[in-house]
Amino acid sequence: MTASLDAFLGSQCGSDAQGQRLADTIRHLSAAAVKVRNTIIEGGTGTDLGGKREATNAGGDVQKELDVLADRVFEEAARASGIAFFGSEEQDAPIPMAAEGDLAIAIDPLDGSSNIDTNVSIGTIFSILPVEDAHRAEPKSVFMQPGHRQKAAGFFIYGPQLLLVLTVGNGTHVFLFSPKFGGFVEMTASVAIAEKTQEFAINASNYRHWDRQMRSYIDDCLAGEEGPREKNFNMRWIGSLVADCYRILTRGGVFLYPGDQRKGYAKGRLRLVYEANPVAMVVEQAGGSATDGVTRILDLVPDDLHARTGLVFGSKREVERVGRYMVDPSAIAERSPLFSKRSLFRA
Ligand SMILES: O=P(O)(O)OC[C@H]1O[C@](O)(COP(=O)(O)O)[C@@H](O)[C@@H]1O
Ligand SMILES: [Mg+2]
Ligand SMILES: [Mg+2]
Fold it and tell me: Which cofactor does it need (predicted)?
């Protein structure tokens, strides 16, 4: 007998009133994801989903048709689920919703916007936070809670399959949308990320903008068997956080989007509240780690709904190793000057 998302939510979200509202909210988000996925399947019939709009969002990214469309669909779902506040990548300020609501949603309605046109997996990332009375006077403050306060987090992937990766604080679970079944069914009951890895994910075109520590880490991976790591590494970069994260949940790996020297990139590209926090909760619940390079993501206190953070996550041992490079690269390996000369990027 296949376990449905509905049954899972009924048994895992708690039997108190807030638990039931949490389950209901995730049901509404799931229905919204099916709508977005149907729109994607329809593709360019009528609208160019990857078409650029005039506007930019709060992060300065040019909005595409699908960014805005997905934002509307999820805003509607949030309203229907009776939450108190909705904070979206695509909107400057949080939107107050039900006055009596005790939950808030932070959302990246469409993750991987640069891949819309290319038929590569894209997704939606969400974080569900508790709302207390103190938050009501200043809606922004609800999103300033550290990630370890999240009640639930996850993401949908619009790829070859429509998947929901979800945690309600009791492991990480994967659900598959089955048209035959008419809903989401459990595909993986408890995800476990391999502790060690030989695969990294980073946008290497930014090499020249990274600091010395980040370059050293990547140099040592690239040096392979002859380098201080004494093993060969593979590299993958999809450019959709949801898809890179799912690969790491499936077969291990480490993802890195560090801060760099480019204007506006001091804290990287990814957003703490609706990208890094939900991914970090999913990853930790699957036995992995997530940091900004040094500090645990879930302990960072956001200072804005759209705050950015460096992000390193994945196989625990590798994330710890990256942290050691950040603090003191010279302590990692007795590196002869030869290794830095061997870097492919410096050749
Ligand atoms: O284009 P870059 O610099 O490699 O950045 C890729 C990253 O940016 C993102 O697309 C940012 O998310 P949005 O598409 O929601 O803005 C991530 O999904 C991805 O990991
Ligand atoms: Mg995103
Ligand atoms: Mg987005």
Answer: Mg(2+)
